[in-house]
Design brief:
With 301 residues, the chain is an alpha/beta fold. The chain has two domains: 145 residues, 3-Layer(aba) Sandwich (Rossmann fold), CATH 3.40.50.720; 137 residues, 2-Layer Sandwich (Dihydrodipicolinate Reductase, domain 2). 44% of the residues lie in helices and 24% in strands. It has ten helices and 13 strands. The strands form two sheets. Strands 12-11-7-10-9-8-13 form a seven-stranded mixed β-sheet. α1 crosses α9, α5 packs antiparallel against α10 and α6 crosses α8. The radius of gyration is 19 Å and the shape is globular. The chain starts with a strand and ends with a strand.
């Protein structure tokens, strides 16, 4: 039984990370930490575990951390946990700067811990199979991704999120798009970006080998325009990535399964570990610079 500490107290922390760990037969939730002690106490009571006032005390009390915090806060917790030898089950994006992402990767490498980043769609078997088959086909010249969310409607649990309001669709739904495009087209090497109305951001990417992709993102789409569409174009024709078959809970359970496999086997080569999380952050950070400075930016390797 692997003991997990839950870091975060928001909707995603309670309904996905906390619920997923609590329901898993080979995981045990041992405590909750959050920046708001009252919310931490309430969530801890829900799951019948202690609330911790000190983050490092919860790190000491667990074998692995499940983190559902704003990305900049997550990066600090993840680094501290990795240095302490705790395994990492993190959320996307890994961090809000490449320097912070590099710190997490370096700490994970030095400690030899297992790590996963929860790119939700990537833990559905039908999506995994599609990406593997599509990458194996090869001959892809272009991909187009459109991810339009609408989180500012009354009652949406993410609408009040300060980091989402500040950083928008680029950093919130952008990681989901990249998690589907990069496995097929390869690492992004250059990016241009432009803003549009209602929080829109458009990316044009060049990938290793010369393929290109376009990505359009927003968190503030009209309700009638909400969509998720990822399409590849190439020698094999046109292929559209499927939506995951199953629930978010199914995907999170699969993520726990895969982290436990990494822990038990001692392997540290998972396709969605913190190194891939860092690759995604590198693209997002370069895109932010490209949009701000109105120029094409090279993506750091």
């Amino acid at each position: 039984m692997v003991r997990f500490g839950l870091f975060g107290t928001g909707h995603w922390a309670g309904e996905t990370h906390g619920a997923g760990v609590d329901a898993h037969p080979r995981a045990a939730l041992v405590g909750v930490w959050g920046r708001d002690p009252a919310k931490a106490a309430a969530l801890a009571q829900r799951y019948g575990v202690p609330a911790f006032e000190d983050a490092d005390a919860l790190i000491d009390a667990c074998d692995a951390v499940a983190v559902a915090l704003p990305p900049d806060v997550q990066a600090d917790i993840a680094t501290r946990a990795a240095v302490a030898g705790r395994h990492l089950l993190l959320d996307k994006p890994l961090a809000l700067t490449l320097a912070d992402a590099d710190r997490v990767v370096a700490a994970a490498r030095a400690s030899g811990i297992a790590s996963l980043v929860f790119f939700t769609q990537r833990y559905h078997p039908n999506v995994t199979a599609f990406l593997a088959a599509t990458a194996a086909d090869g001959g892809w010249q272009h991909a187009r991704a459109t991810l339009f969310a609408s989180i500012y409607q009354p009652g949406n649990p993410y609408g009040a999120s300060a980091w989402r309001r500040e950083h928008g669709g680029l950093w919130d739904v952008g990681p989901h798009a990249l998690s589907l495009i990069l496995p097929v087209l390869g690492r992004a090497t250059r990016v241009a970006a432009m803003s549009g109305p209602r929080g829109l951001v458009h990316l044009l990417l060049t990938h290793e080998g010369g393929a290109t992709s376009t990505v359009s993102l927003t968190l503030d789409a009209p309700g009638e325009a909400v969509t998720r569409d990822v399409v590849f174009y190439g020698d094999s024709g046109i292929e559209t990535a499927p939506l995951g078959k199953g629930t978010v809970a199914d995907a999170y359970g699969a993520a726990i399964d895969q982290l436990l496999e990494e822990i038990e086997s001692g392997t540290r080569d998972h396709r969605l570990d913190v190194r891939f999380g860092r690759e995604v952050v590198a693209v997002l950070a370069a895109a932010e610079t490209a949009r701000t400075e109105a120029r094409v930016v090279d993506v750091p390797a």
